[in-house]
Design goal:
By secondary structure, the chain is mostly helical. The protein has one domain. Helix content is 72%, strand content 0%.
């Protein structure tokens, strides 16, 4: 093993041909763009929080917007990059069973796990959509003096989980 492992940026289990291949190609473009935006959001959140520390502790500047802004940025980054990570099988997984099971049984186990995860993500997307609609209709905001609208993080959650659901569905439908 080398001193550092290279990050594999290729999609795993991704269909390359037919309708699913076309869907995966579109997903790759969207996921890549969101991965870049997510990286920028994480960087911005780090800068905002650094400014908060400098402003509050060294310059005596009171503020309340930094925590909310950094939280919104991190929510966007987390949900925005979920499908990109799934396309590369980068989410946490337990590989102990894959070493013990015969390849066909392991493939079935993996497909079943993907299907169950996809069902959960579809449910999460639906619930996020309900929160988004409620926040939009009721004009909900955070209970602070800044008071940004809550539809922003709910929109990030809904869009990110919808993309993750599509990515998982494509991986489930791909023939082995």
């Amino acid at each position: 093993m080398t001193a550092h492992a290279e990050l594999d940026l290729t999609t795993i289990d991704a269909p390359r041909e037919g309708l699913l291949g076309a869907v995966q190609s579109v997903l790759n473009v969207v996921n890549d763009a969101l991965a870049v935006l997510s990286a920028l959001a994480i960087t911005a959140a780090g800068l905002v929080l650094t400014w908060e520390v400098i402003g509050r502790y060294f310059l005596g500047i009171a503020s309340d917007w930094q925590d909310e802004l950094s939280t919104f940025l991190l929510i966007g980054a987390t949900f925005g990059s979920a499908a990109w990570t799934q396309a590369r099988r980068g989410h946490v997984g337990i590989d102990a069973l894959s070493m013990l099971l015969p390849p066909r049984v392991d493939a079935l186990r993996r497909r079943l796990a993907d299907l169950l995860a996809c069902i959960f993500v579809v449910f999460f997307t639906w619930k996020s959509w309900q929160l988004l609609v409620e926040a939009w209709v009721d004009d909900q905001t955070t209970p602070t003096s800044w008071g940004p609208p809550l539809w922003i993080p709910y929109a990030c959650m809904t869009a990110g989980m919808a993309l993750l659901a599509v990515q998982q569905a494509v991986q489930v439908m791909k023939t082995k």
